[in-house]
Design brief:
about 220 residues, alpha+beta, two-stranded antiparallel ribbon, 11 strands, about 40% helix
Length: about 220
């Protein structure tokens, strides 16, 4: 989730761990499952409802992409620059020195965001990489003109699912460039934090979350 604080000029990039065990108000009946199961029980609206109930936050809009759309979007803006560690480069199939800022195309960026099972902390590092990608995507917008933004948004609208109209997206993008939101300090965080979660290995591996404390 991305949130904007115009007063402090900060952008907050927040990852919600998909393995967090939660209550889902499903159309099939009450259900307890991993939070990512909420999407299967009612799409983006059900996932948003679940996140809002758990963390007592308001989510104004959403944009959803699939893997094919992800690749097309990254290639459309000309790729992204991300610092890639050697073990990550190996997982993605890149040849680069330690900690080098690497230019990734759509396929490479997707593989980078999906790297699994090569970190001791699992999804913690995977979501960190995903926030790194979003940060790079934000920085990439510095190089776009207003006319280019309008063209990109019109094209992107074919590849995403969202509750925003194309006019709304262009309006947000225009505001972002005019007010230079891309220069805001980016705060990266994962939820629940270490002190509000514990792992559980029962019939499935999940995070048990202290939701009132996390909220």
């Amino acid at each position: 989730m991305m949130s904007l604080n115009k007063e402090t000029k900060k952008i907050f990039l927040t990852s919600f761990f998909r393995d967090s065990y939660t209550y889902i108000n499903s159309s099939y009946g009450d259900k307890y499952a991993k939070i990512n199961a909420a999407y299967a029980h009612g799409g983006a609206k059900k996932l948003i409802e679940t996140l809002q109930n758990d963390y007592k936050i308001a989510i104004d809009h959403y944009v959803s992409v699939n893997f094919t759309s992800f690749v097309k979007i990254v290639d459309l803006i000309g790729g992204v620059d991300i610092t890639v560690q050697p073990y990550e480069a190996k997982a993605v199939g890149l040849d680069c020195p330690s900690g080098e800022n690497v230019h990734l195309n759509g396929e490479q960026a997707l593989m980078f965001c999906r790297i699994r099972k090569c970190d001791a902390d699992g999804d913690v590092s995977r979501t960190r990489r995903q926030r790194m990608f979003i940060s790079s995507l934000i920085k990439r917008t510095q190089e776009l003109s207003l006319s280019e933004v309008a063209e990109v948004i019109e094209t992107l609208f074919e590849y995403v699912k969202t509750d925003c109209s194309s006019v709304q997206l262009i309006s947000y993008a225009t505001q972002a460039l005019i007010n230079k939101w891309y220069n805001y300090e980016i705060i990266s965080q994962s939820v629940p934090s270490l002190e509000h979660r514990m792992d559980y290995r029962g019939y499935a591996w999940v995070w048990i979350v202290d939701y009132p404390a996390a909220a």
